[in-house]
Amino acid sequence: MPVTVEISNPAKLRRVRSILGAKSDNEAAELALEKVIEDHEPPETKPRSHDLPDEYWDDLFSEQMLPNNAGSQAVIDERNESRF
User: Fold this and answer.
1) Measured distance CA(14)–CA(9) in Å, rounded
2) What is the DSSP letter of 53?
3) How many CB atoms lie within 10 A of CB 66?
4) Which of 15, 39, 50, 62 has its CA 20 to 30 A from that of 23?
5) Which of the pair, 43 or 31, is modelled with greater confidence?
């Protein structure tokens, strides 16, 4: 349902268009509304993601955790500990 809005300060609308990179006044208003909703929506209504960001996994696995051949020794040590 389209709604007509009167902007009382055209300079602010031009500034919003410039900041958001909008091609038209209508697009500027739509983008501004979406941004306000995104920034100010209460946390309980936002969809939550329990996934960790990809950068976390990249950083976690980018470095070798064990020296060469230490992996097999770690498995052997763990098996030996579980016997007791």
Assistant:
1) 9
2) P
3) 10
4) 39
5) 31
